TrEMBL record:
GO terms for molecular function: hexosyltransferase activity; UDP-glycosyltransferase activity. The keyword Zinc does not apply. The lineage of its organism: Bacteria, Bacillati, Actinomycetota, Actinomycetes, Streptosporangiales. InterPro entries: EryCIII-like_C (IPR010610), EryCIII-like_N (IPR048284), Glycosyl_450act (IPR030953), Glycosyltransferase_28 (IPR050426), UDP_glucos_trans (IPR002213). It comes from Nocardiopsis eucommiae. PANTHER family: STEROL 3-BETA-GLUCOSYLTRANSFERASE, STEROL 3-BETA-GLUCOSYLTRANSFERASE UGT80A2. This is Activator-dependent family glycosyltransferase. It comes from the Bacteria. Residues 268-410 form the Erythromycin biosynthesis protein CIII-like C-terminal domain. GO terms for biological process: antibiotic biosynthetic process. Keywords: Antibiotic biosynthesis, Glycosyltransferase, Transferase.
Length: 418
């Protein structure tokens, strides 16, 4: 069958799609990845066929505009963590802001070109990154089956369910739906109407282990997380086993790609001098350059997490989905320095509630607090034991190769193209 993978041009979100893309390829299916032009080289480096359409997004400009809105992150976090206790106004404001400033930014510049390409190529199946609603639109237009692929917790669907339930209780003249109206306008250009399947997908691929997954998510297909970090080299020093417990400190790559700097300052490393550990920090210096660091700290620009974390006794991060998932796969206890972005709080709380991690909220994350929490992760065996239980959950899930037959079966229920 022909499989079209749609992903807006954000590297780390695309990386999440590579294992399932290759599972489909090795099963004999034809796979093409359609995205905006700036992702082309990244797709090709993954050994996949790239199709560039439309124009690139300007999400960096959106994020810069939010720097002056001090309450923005708190409002998003409130909806993401507790939609059931968010009122209509709070949910409406969230979906209006997310639609105008994020979803339209990611999709408007290439949705029509994506539909045009899908009409020409006629895929049987469309897999789409969780924010790439253009993929669902293209699938609907050509009658293809379509699957939403998560890279993190499905907080959007949970918030959407709450929004729709409140929307249905409002009077007909007061039923405004920013997300539905925007997608409905796009679909209308092709003779289709909006329904919630365009937001949720016909199926959802979810890599979270059962204990970390949000409850009551319909049509979920569990799939094992398989790390892909892009082209990478294992440094020679990593081939030698650590002489002391090793701690990784990383801010991930997403925010660095967006802003050009890391969200963990190097100053946070100073108190690690008090611990009998070795630290590998994948951080880049800020404008002030590199401060004097303790002798037990190794500062590097990048190391593939799938190579580094198996050697670690703990990891400190900002809650990014890729780092969290890789640490889960290798049974590593985690300390999250929560930035309050999207689903990071949900993920950090799930780690804490499962006993496999600790978290520090903004204002709590002093260098000394980070040191003290890392000491607990390294010295208290309960964290490693809980992390190992989550690792077993990850390994019990079907691999991407195992999921391919389910995707093939889904394609037996295609719609009618227009």
């Amino acid at each position: 069958m022909r499989v079209l993978i749609a992903a807006y041009s954000e590297k780390t979100h695309f990386y999440n799609l590579v294992p399932i893309a290759w599972a489909l390829r090795t099963a004999g299916h034809e796979v093409r990845v359609v995205s905006q032009p700036s992702l082309t080289s990244t797709i090709v480096e993954a050994g996949l066929t790239a199709v560039a359409v439309g124009r690139d997004h300007s999400f960096m400009e959106v994020m810069e505009s939010k720097e002056e809105d001090e309450g923005w992150a708190d409002r998003v976090t409130s909806v993401m963590t507790d939609p059931e206790n968010t009122d209509w106004e709070g949910l409406y404001d969230f979906f209006e802001d997310a639609t105008v400033n994020s979803f339209r930014t990611f999709n408007d510049g290439w949705v029509d070109e994506l539909v045009e390409y899908a009409r020409e190529w006629r895929p049987d199946l469309v897999l789409w990154e969780a924010f790439t609603f253009a993929g669902a639109v293209a699938a609907r237009v050509v009658g293809a089956a379509h699957v939403r692929v998560l890279w993190g917790a499905d907080v959007l669907t949970r918030a959407r369910h709450r929004f729709v339930s409140l929307l249905e209780k409002r009077s007909p003249e007061d039923r405004s739906d920013p997300l539905g109206e925007w997608l409905g306008e796009i679909l209308g250009r092709y003779g289709h109407t909006f329904d919630e399947e365009i937001v949720t997908g016909q199926r959802v691929l979810d890599q979270a282990p059962t204990s970390m997954r949000l409850p009551d998510q319909a049509h979920t297909v569990p799939v094992r997380y398989v790390p892909y970090n892009g082209p990478a080299e294992v440094p020679s020093w990593l081939l030698e086993p650590p002489r002391k417990p090793r701690v990784c400190v990383t801010a991930g790559m997403s925010m660095r790609n967006f802003f050009g700097f890391d969200m963990i300052p190097l100053e946070i490393l100073q108190p690690f001098a008090d611990l009998d550990v070795e630290v590998v920090a994948t951080l880049v210096p800020g404008e002030g350059g590199v401060p004097d660091l303790p002798p037990n700290v190794r500062l590097v620009d990048f190391v593939p997490m799938n190579a580094l974390l198996p050697t670690c006794s703990a990891v400190v991060h900002i809650g990014g989905a890729g780092v969290v998932s890789t640490a889960l796969l290798h049974g590593v206890p985690q300390l999250t320095l929560v930035p309050g972005l999207w689903d990071t709080v949900v993920r950090a709380r799930a780690l804490r509630d499962n006993g496999a991690g600790l978290l520090l909220m903004p204002g709590e994350d002093s260098p000394e607090a980070v040191r003290d929490n890392v000491r607990r992760l390294v010295e208290e065996p309960s964290f490693r034991e809980a992390a190992e239980l989550l690792r077993q959950e990850v390994l019990s899930q079907p691999t991407p190769n195992d999921v391919v037959p389910l995707l093939e079966e889904l394609c037996g229920h295609r719609g009618t193209p227009r």
